[in-house]
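> tool_call: predict_assembly(chains=two)
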Amino acid sequence: MFDAVFRNFSFLMGGLLITFKLAACALAGGIPLGILVGLGRISKNKWIYYPVTYYVNFIRNIPLILVIFWFYFVMPIITGSSIDPFPSAVVSFIVFEATYFGEIFRAGYQSISKDLVNAAFATGLTYSQTVRYITVPIAFRRMMPSLITQSIVTLQDTSLAFVIGLPELVRRASIVDNLEVRSIQLFGFVAITFFIICYTGSKISRYYEEKVRKANIL
Amino acid sequence: MIEIKNVSKWFGDFQVLKNINEVIRQNQTVVVCGPSGSGKSTLLRCINGLEPFQQGEIIVGGVKVNDPKTNIYKLRQKIGMVFQRFELYPHMTALQNITLAPIKVLKLSKKEAEERAMKLLERVGIPEKANEYPANLSGGQQQRVAIARALAMEPEYMLFDEPTSALDPEMIKEVLDVMIDLAKEGMTMLCVTHEMGFAREVADEILFMDYGQIVERGTYEEFFKNPKTERAKDFISHILH
């Protein structure tokens, strides 16, 4: 029943690898940028706060697919040179996901009491040392379940890179479908693959949540 | 010496500190008391630059706190602070809480910092809790770790902001004993507290604050036996009953 899938298995798995690569790059850039965006969103410096807030509000209120299109089709017009789908998709995802991660980190930072930060300052730690050793690690631990959930969403979102011709899993399934005309099994296979990966991820998130709660360390 | 000169502070339209003038001399232990909302905690936070103020100046050990040219981080190394709700870093063990600033700020080696931390934990009576996380410690133990954390920077001054108000009664003594030892060793201390037993035993002077002003200043005997103002009399009658 999965004959078309088996015949093209290595081609499809190659697509899954690209899906993973894109998601990995999006997270490797989006989470660190999100840490900074979150800091900008609680900044008292208006030269930092307003630009970051406008960026977050703008990106969060347009569909991801437009961000992907925009980078891929508009950047070459501006820069004068064409751009490959993969780096273009990576930049789009980092810019997009960083706003979501930024809001998660902002909530995490805001869950930390002002006096805990004051306690760090009182020992002579600087702002950047306090952020690095206190604020970010605590926000990271507290927001871990949300961060895992958003990472799963990011993995699912990567299939949208299909629209600029990036040969990730969905795109490759579609290529095979054009040759073999086995839509149900091919896209069924893609759905099952995503489901297994994402369901496992959400289970890990739940497990971590329980572990932190039981260990009572935060 | 901590010199507070003509300090006023507003939160919006509300004036929390009204023209405060005080001097805390070296090796003095001064207790600050007064009703809640009278500005006691805010005054402490102005001394180590955690809160800005709009008027006046504060000079700690010859260094002006509210001078943009002052390296406030360096000044804070000399001023330890202990908070009402302990404020230990929840993701670090007691030992890591104490060694963080000595390692990152004073650039001690991990080994030196840990030796110093263990000595302090012995001094506050809980060396066996070194590797516990704050959530597994009682309130009194957490507060003693917090004191050790402040002392690890070898400060010249210590600020205590209601260090026993969040504690169960049976744990208050273990924290006060540590503070009494510190005072007797000659630490310069400014303590916001309503523990009058502590005040009687070690306070050189008591400051009574109300509505953002220092209403009275005197020794324990002067303040309790012979309060000059109605507000102080009223306050004393409430805390002793």
